[in-house]
Amino acid sequence: MDQFSEYYKGRSGLTLGVVKKLYAKQTPYQLVEVYETDSWGNLLTIDGLVMLSEQDEFVYHEMLSHVPLFTHPKPEKVLIIGGGDGGTAREVMRHKRVKQVDLVEIDEAVVEACKLYLPTVGDFDHPKLTLRIEDGIQFIENTKEETYDVVIIDGSDPVGPADGLFDTSFVEQCARILKKDGVFASQSESPWVKHYQPSMQRLAKGLKLFFPRVNPYICSIPLYPTGLWSMIVASKKYDPKGIHINETLRIEGDDFLNGCRYYTDEIHRAAFALPAFVRKIFQIE
Amino acid sequence: MDQFSEYYKGRSGLTLGVVKKLYAKQTPYQLVEVYETDSWGNLLTIDGLVMLSEQDEFVYHEMLSHVPLFTHPKPEKVLIIGGGDGGTAREVMRHKRVKQVDLVEIDEAVVEACKLYLPTVGDFDHPKLTLRIEDGIQFIENTKEETYDVVIIDGSDPVGPADGLFDTSFVEQCARILKKDGVFASQSESPWVKHYQPSMQRLAKGLKLFFPRVNPYICSIPLYPTGLWSMIVASKKYDPKGIHINETLRIEGDDFLNGCRYYTDEIHRAAFALPAFVRKIFQIE
Q: In this predicted structure, what is the pLDDT of residue B232?
């Protein structure tokens, strides 16, 4: 094999030059693989779909973390569902205000593969981190109290084990375990890929039932289908779009942003400006 | 053949399912081809590089047109260099304020291929349009006076006939033929593709010698390498970043924006918020 291809429609998609396959494990949930590519570093795939590469993972992880984390003034306790590569947790734990991160990944093989072949992505020995290998939906159902300041859904596409992460019943559970000023964020697929649009709409609609503020936003991820990716932040109290992070940076330290390669204060606010066709998908007037 | 691939590094890039090849002509300048794809409509390529597809061309053409056109309050006379597919001219001519468009394409085969197989892209019979088949660099050198309100460079990658479009000497000529409050815009490649970064920097640096305001901006084009694309607007007088288009819409008509699928007033301003790594490439403090 000298190439990996992910087709999102017909025979159209992304192709990556492959130096060699480093890891492959069929688990009860999915097929987890790592490739060494010719131009993006090592690459994690699940069921043949790109999850991340060493060279572009910073976009996804910064945008899924820092948008909700800077929306909340005191995000001490954070729950991440999925995200077994550790990248979202890494970015979340860079915030000094964060005291505790629970990372709930369903598939141990994802963690194993990343520890072996993508060691710069996660920091699994970090004292703030508790890693749990279990079903995130179950974990949330078993959580009895309003416990978290921020919940981040870092799942794969809405097929297989991640499908339930777009359901209204799941969103309701997330709202239930968030404190009264809690913030929720989730990845929500590419606006260009028609067959995921119903899932995007289902997620946004469900969130509106439980959060007064529901704001889709976008970023540019080169190895995801079409390169345009959407995420959603939902907030019980604080306005995600109105944030200027200067005050927060007094706590986090001025050099916090120097550790970011995509996220900036300006990007935070600009990410909510959606292209006209994306506004239509999310039914924004 | 059942697939077309464009690799931007090693064997990594974009792959499109091909139903059939509709057009191929080797001209003195380049190889012009049109494919029918399985998922993006018909596709124009030059020397094996994607120029546009029917389904995603609106992003590029709206963002390359409306950002400079809404920056200028009275863009009556517009020059487009390249852009033989007619898409940029189509968007420019939607502005009522525009009275005359000169479209200077070096290669007649591009126009021919698009008239035949991408007829929805251009509107070559529009009364505002003058199409000239000649070298754009020569055309500008032969233009003696400050004539244009807006000059738009709609060229291909900085190899082959389009390489000179990134030179400081060319930028100087563009500034020379623009009126005292003129606006310039050009496509400027993907920030992710390292081998084009010197061209991007050369263009930005050159522009700063002749325009007080030089502002790179970004948009998301699914069929261009990495999906993240940069453009630059340079202005002698008006501030491209400070524009709110409400007043202009009183002239253009409220339904102008209904004809846009990507561009919005918010997108105009948000497009100037660059990811941290893109700020570094353009050496923005």
A: 98
Which two three-digit tokens encode residue A240?
């995600």
Interface pTM (ipTM) of the complex? Answer: 0.96
Query: How many beta-carbon pairs below 8 A join chains A and B?
Result: 138
What residue of B is the nearest CA neighbor of A38?
B10
For residue A273, the chain B residues in CB contact (below 8 A) are: 264, 266-267, 269-271
Dihedral in degrees, nearest 10, Cα atoms B241, B245, B246, B252: 170
Please answer yes or no on whether B17 and A10 come within 8 Å at the CB atom.
yes
Q: Cβ(B131)–Cβ(B81) under 8 Å?
A: no
Q: Which domains does chain B have, with CATH numbers?
A: 3-53 (2.30.140.10), 57-281 (3.40.50.150)
* Portion 107-136 of B in contact with A at CB < 8 A: none
Residue-wise pLDDT tens digits, B116-161: 999 999 999 999 999 999 999 999 999 998 899 999 999 988 877 7
What six digits make up the tokens of B21? 């090849």
Rounded to two decimals, the pTM is 0.97
Residue the block writes with tokens 């004539």: B147
CB contact under 8 A, B262 and A275: yes
